[in-house]
Amino acid sequence: MTSQQTVQELLERARVHINGSQSGDILVHNAQFYDRVLAEGSLGLGESYMDGWWDANQLDDFFFRIHTVELDKAVRDKGLIWNAFKARLFNMQTQSRSKRVAQLHYDLNNEFYEQMLGPHMQYTCAYWKRAKTLAEAQEQKLDLICRKLQLQKGERVLELGCGWGGFAHFAAANYGCSVVAHNISERQVAYARRWCAGLPVEIRLQDYREATGEFDKVAAIGICEHVGFKNYRTLMEVAHRSLKPHGLFLLHSIGNNASVTTGDPWFDKYIFPGGMLPSVAQLSAAMDGLFVMEDWHNFGTDYDRTLLAWQENVDRHRAQWDKTFDERFFRMWRYYLLSLAGAFRARTIHLWQIVMSKHGLLGGYEAVR
């Protein structure tokens, strides 16, 4: 059987046809595509797309289909095996190694992110329950977090990993809290300091492990995907030691159905070096003996819609960036956003907000939706 026949047979399991006309079908422009995918797995699939060797009529639907039938398990991915071996031997997210993702991804260009993300500069899942636009959905996500944390005026909040300062700004401006936030991206920290100027917000250019002090509430929004499986417990311990006895800790993270010790090879190389998605079992083990789990909310299907909105924004402003980024960058970015949209749609990955307390709230915790 030729490599083309092998790939074709695999894709047919997912109802994907080569050079077909349906939304999930792909168009192959270079016959070397088949050998490359079989030899290199996920990395070959992504890089060949970046190189223009193939296209999809609708990339998110293509990935939705292959995730639905778990087609990735049918292809032996050497890169994934090697990454897993390294992760077992070494801590791939020490304080020095953790800076790679900031340098590669988050320090890319603040104006580019402004146009993609919108006015709240939220690079995590929006909450679309009562929203019609991305801006509304992100504002509702921020308010959802504040209500889940039961924020009160005058409380001190610790944020572990703060992006461009959107949550810190929102909590301080709308709930009267003071916020101390940690981030290792120099560009994001500079942006957050300008944006939060005049508010009781302190943005520290520090690793989350360097957090000190005692706080009424702790938030970790979108950092857990970057800390690595060897550091899930450390993240929980930092939150625990920083939280007052009757405080609340909210963890907002993408989650995986299975426990893994490494990330996808293509994402590891091009988007999030050292990143990986925790499972329920891994997070439960990390919080074991430290926290009472008060609430676990899954709204991962909202991430599908969020990612599509981000891609629409990138497409809308594309002409402005043609002299800054080349075609290969835009194909990489489209692959990144739409492949994730398909995975969320297929329910192979999720978005979790977990609320925890040290000793359990007296009278119980009322879930907020």
Explain what this protein looks like in three dimensions.
The structure is a single chain. With 369 residues, this protein is an alpha/beta fold. Helices cover 45% and strands 16% of the residues. It is built from 15 helices and nine strands. The chain has helices at residues 3-13, 33-50, 59-68, 78-89, 99-106, 110-117, 134-148, 166-175, 186-195, 224-227, 232-242, 265-270, 280-287, 301-316, 327-345, and strands at residues 26-28, 54-56, 156-160, 178-183, 201-205, 215-221, 243-256, 292-298, 349-357. The chain has a seven-stranded mixed sheet with strand order 5-4-3-6-7-9-8. Helix 1 (3-13) crosses helix 2 (33-50) and helix 2 (33-50) packs across helix 15. The longest helix has 19 residues, at 327-345. 47% of the residues are buried.
Order of H and E elements: HEHEHHHHHEHEHEEHHEHHEHHE
Please compute the radius of gyration using only Cα atoms. 21 Å
What share of the residues does DSSP label as strand, in percent? 15-25%
- Number of strand elements: 9
Uncertain residue ranges: 77-90
- The count of helical stretches stands at 15
| Mean of pLDDT | 92
Q: How far apart, in Å, are the first and last alpha carbons?
A: 53 Å
Mind summarizing the main beta sheet?
A: 7 strands, mixed
Helix content: 40-55%
The spatial strand order of the largest sheet comes to 5-4-3-6-7-9-8
Please tell me what the overall shape is. globular
Q: What would you call the structural class?
A: alpha/beta
